[in-house]
């Protein structure tokens, strides 16, 4: 089985325009600015053998204000620049009560089937409590980057930034190279 690091998209892999509590999600490629500080940590994690996956709630797809085409362009950019293997999207509205909208763990479970992951050995890196909650439910280790959105629920580690999160993951499981049998 393989191991992965899951990343929250907004505010971790792409920059958010403000530090206000209600952050507007970028809706177009022009508004979508990649976080240059993500490049090196993701390169190191990839070199250590991790599958790199991003997860994101995009209710604008159901509500009609996010175009699928723009979203695909943004995610193509994201994967190309950072070597991400896939961006997993929950397109639903809160009222749909789907199993994949974070803080639910559906996207992690779906990825585990698709990528043959051992979730107990996977990490979730985010600045938001919703991802730490989903990680806890799925059995992953959560690394929460310190932010106003950390909440007070379960998390395994709090780290100062993305580079610190990657270091922590590599320190906990330094050699994740896939054996020939997997
Ligand atoms: Zn969903």
Can you give me a brief rundown of this structure?
By secondary structure, this protein is of the alpha/beta class. The chain has helices spanning 39-47, 60-63, 68-82, 106-115, 129-138, 162-172, and strands at residues 4-8, 51-57, 86-90, 123-126, 141-145, 157-159.
Question: How does this model look, in words?
Answer:
The chain is an alpha/beta fold and 182 residues long. The protein contains 6 helices and 6 strands. It has helices spanning 39-47, 60-63, 68-82, 106-115, 129-138, 162-172; strands at residues 4-8, 51-57, 86-90, 123-126, 141-145, 157-159. Helix 1 packs parallel to helix 6 (162-172). The chain is globular, with a radius of gyration of 15 Å. The model has no long low-confidence stretch (mean pLDDT 93). The protein binds zinc ion (ZN). The site of zinc ion has 5 residues, from loops.
